[in-house]
Amino acid sequence: MKINVNSAALHCSVMIYDDVLSHGIAEASNMSHFSGDGEGIWYLNRVKARTPGQGHGTVILTKLQETLAAREDFRELRVEPGGYGSDIDRVIKFYESRGFVQDPSGRYWLWTNPSMTRV
Is 1 helix (H, G, I), strand (E, B) or coil? Predict the structure, then answer.
C-alpha cells in the first residue's frame, strides 16, 4: 500500500492506495476563516475506507492527524460523526479510539495535538 498526502493552506487529504485502486481517503478543511472562535480550527470532512475493518481508516486518519499536528496553523480537529449510512455508535468509537473527545456542548468531537502545550 502507498500513502499520498496533500496539504495546502485550506485543505489536507490523505489517501491509501495500491497500483489498482484507492482503499480509503481522509480529508479535512481549515475553518479558521469561517469560525468565530479563533484560528487553527480544522473540520474533518470524511474518513472513508473501501472495506471497513481492514485498518485503512485508522492508517489514513492517523496520517492526517500527524500532518495537521505538524502545521503551525493547527489547533484542533473537529468532526460530527455520521454519514455514509454508518452505525453512529461504531463511528463514535472509532473516533474516540483515535483520541477524539466530545465537546462539552455535545455538538461535535474534537482532537487536539497531545504534544501541544496550552498556556
Answer: coil
Q: What long-range pairs does 88-96 form, CB within 8 A, spacing at least 24?
A: 94/47, 94/57, 94/58
Q: What is the pTM of this model?
A: 0.89
> Residue 119's pLDDT is what?
42
What does the angle CA 70 – CA 64 – CA 96 come to, to the nearest 5 degrees?
Answer: 110
pLDDT at 44 exceeding the cut of 70: yes
Cα-based distances in Å from 119 to 38, 116: 15, 10
Letter string b/e over residues 61-72, b meaning 16 or more CB atoms within 10 A of that residue's CB: bebbbebbeeee
Q: Smallest Cα–Cα separation from 42: which of 61, 24, 20, 18?
A: 61
DSSP class of 116: P
Cβ-contact 14, 47 below 8 angstroms: no
CB–CB of 23/14 below 8 Å?
A: no
- Please determine, for residue 64, whether its predicted confidence score (pLDDT) is greater than 60: yes
